[in-house]
Amino acid sequence: MEAATAAAVGQVTMALPTLSTADANAVLEAAVPIPVRGAARFLEELAEHMATHPDALTSGSSLCPPVLLRLAEVLHEAGHPVVRPGCAHCGKIRSDLRQLRPEGRLCGSCDARSRKRETCARCHREGQRVTARRPEGPICHRCYRTDPATFETCAGCGQLRHPVVRRDDGRGLCMKCWQRPMHTCASCGKTAAAALVDDDGAVCHLCYNRHRRPRRLCGRCGKLKRIARNARDGQPDLCDGCYQSPEVTCSICSRVRPCTSRDPHGRPVCATCYQRHRAGEPCARCGKTKPGNARWPIGPVCMTCYTAVLRSPAECPRCGKVQPLTARGDDGAEICGPCVGFAADYTCKQCGRAGNPHSRGRCAHCVLAERVNALLAGPDGTVTPQLEPLATALTDAPSPFRAIQWIKESPNTRLLAQLATDGHLLSHELLDKLPPSRNQRYIRQLLVHTGVFEECHEDLERIPGWLEHELADKPAAHARLARPFLNWFLLRRARQRAAYRHHPASADRDLRRRVSVALDFLAWMDQRDLILADLAQEHIDDWIAGATSQRRYLIRYFLNWTTSRRLTRELTVPSLPRQEPQDLLDEDDRWPLLKSCLTDDALPTDVRAAGAITLLFGPSTKRLCHLTPEHLKFDDKHAHLVLGRHPVLLPPMLAQLLRQLAEQPQLRPQLSRVRPGPRWLFPGMVPGKPISTHGMTQKLNRYGIPVRTARNAALAALAADLPSPIVADVTGMHRHTALRWVAYAQRHWAEYLAARAEAVASREEAETRGGTQSAVESALASFEKFETPTTR
């Protein structure tokens, strides 16, 4: 015994250098108690196996003696870095894998499934698992259960039945009389039948599936997931997502569907009916009657409260630890569960952080870090230094659950994973080679936002890549004209304008339309065997006359370029006549809409703010989308909004609404960025970008605020009450546009200009004579007749 113990201790300390000799003796004694018969032989087997396989404690192979299973379990519970062997078929980690096969040890269930199948001697069915052997031969499970020799009187009902369990006195109970023992789950606190009972306590089936059930590679999707059906009959392992239970008739809706649940009478219920007919009970936290998700010391809690408490751990006033507060003290104060003996542990097993549980005992932050590394891993399995800023920004996202969901479901992550796996150095040029798509634009802005790419005018710089894909099926002669037209004429002017604009110009749509019209015009010329040098005015007139829309008038830009390059003669494209605003929101409809935006709490805050600004001041949708908190000026008495050169006074209710919008947290998770950028009042789906003009228009229209007609009505009302210079200063529009609106409103301002000149002359005269107060009163009197509610 001493020699066997010394050999085993030597092998264990060699495999685990951090383990002392005394500790090795202690764990061996726990794994193989000395009084056990044959203990020396077990230790000799262990020493011999570990000498042959030095990595036996870290390889996870179950092709080993049984004593190694118990030793690995003892070392694992003590916190040593070992890998516990599992069943060679299903991967279930157990210390009683008794059956040894060439591929490793098997659990009882897998051993039964892997046994040789024979023909039953009673029912003569072929390919049956042998449950027992009788004088006539092997019999299957069905025949064994109906064998009279196995029947006895049930201790519960007194009938002659097959026993399924025995009481302490040795008498058996049939299946109807036996009731599964109920336990309090150590994870969720529910009282239910236990799926697993170990040293940590009992675990219900739901928590076992969430945290304890082994994971293996699914044979269909190839992902490491929980296995719902083990491989058998030539079928591979299937995970929860790939496995579909057999279709039966639902007992509630009578439809033939996959039914994974049962009602209290044991009848099948489909997933839809189960969710619809789940019994609810009052939640101990919010008081609403909902299906309970867990039972805490405070009582049953619904899913909403369960999530809110676990994702917001706080310091317990009794023990001082940061934990989810799932109980209440005698004084009604919220305290953590361990302070009242509640054994559920919501501490991450990987980082030790409390709260935010996600999967397999880990918090959402650790799961997010793991999935970010898997997403951005290169060919060598590690994240490249170029993508480190992006990995850091994703890992430090303020809402890890949303980031995990984005990685799992967003189609953008597939493109990002493909770019990372290829191992190429990422650049704007590499993305330009990809087909233009929303995913490509999102990934480009994501890389710019996190500092991987340099900042650029994305709306303009992505147009050359779009043109190359457009020219893929076009003649070479068209490509030789379209490329310089775009790059040296359209883009050059657009970049110059973008350099000094206060608001980014989304000119990409207009530029693409001009290039598309040019390509259509070249195709039209080929149909008529025309060349640029032969173009005459009648050809241009024919081109315009055949138009079904005003889109063909955009050919003027292409002809201006060809004329400047002396490719065509001087040609004229008629200008579109300026049209007056056709659709205006009626004043009887405009003011109720404005009142609804200012007072209706049922509307989203951003919709109320954007709708009120549009109905009052009529700014362009582009200017509205690019508003930031810096455009709001608050002082002790008043609040102002800067739309143009001068701030405009806000009504108190709108000022309060905008203050609330500026101070509320962003609804979508915002990634940290290397270079500081503006914080938008109306953020968009793309990181670092505001909501698009199309998205803002659709959102307001969805809530009954027609943007175009509301803006026209607001500008018409301003132009009717204010002169064009003030309209231009207040709304930020061009002075010529303001002049046209004032002309449309048909208000003559000659009296206003005369009154202003009179006021200036009176002020100068008062300053000369020292009568400043009388001059001010005179000026105010002269302006009084021109005051309107808007100017006040």
Largest sheet: 3 strands, antiparallel
β content, as a range?
A: 5-15%
> Total strand count, please?
31
Strand order in the sheet with the most strands:
9-10-11
Question: How many separate helices?
Answer: 32
CATH topology of the largest domain: hpI Integrase, Chain A
Overall morphology: elongated
| CA-atom Rg in angstroms | 39 Å
Low-confidence stretches: 771-792
Total tally of structural domains: 6
Task: Give me the secondary-structure category.
Answer: alpha+beta
Q: Could you say what the CATH architecture of the largest domain is? A: Orthogonal Bundle
Distance between the termini: 102 Å
CATH C-level of the largest domain:
Mainly Alpha
Mean pLDDT: 82
The quaternary organization reads as: single chain
Helix share bin: 40-55%
State the CATH superfamily name of the largest domain: Intergrase catalytic core
Descriptive keywords:
three-stranded antiparallel beta sheet; 44% helix; single chain; 792 residues; 6 domains; 31 strands
Structure explained in plain terms:
- This protein has 792 residues and is α+β, with helices and mostly antiparallel strands.
- The chain has 6 domains: 2-114, no CATH class; 281-346, no CATH class; 364-456; 465-564, no CATH class; 587-742, hpI Integrase, Chain A (Orthogonal Bundle), CATH 1.10.443; 750-784.
- The protein is built from 32 helices and 31 strands.
- The protein has a 3-stranded antiparallel beta sheet. Strands 12-13-14 form a 3-stranded antiparallel beta sheet, with no helix packed on it.
- A hairpin with a 5-residue loop joins strand 25 and strand 26 (334-335).
- Helix 14 crosses helix 16 (438-449), helix 19 (476-500) packs antiparallel against helix 20 and helix 31 runs antiparallel to helix 32 (772-784).
- The chain is elongated.
- It starts with a helix and ends in an 8-residue tail after the last helix.
- The model is unreliable at 771-792 (pLDDT under 50).
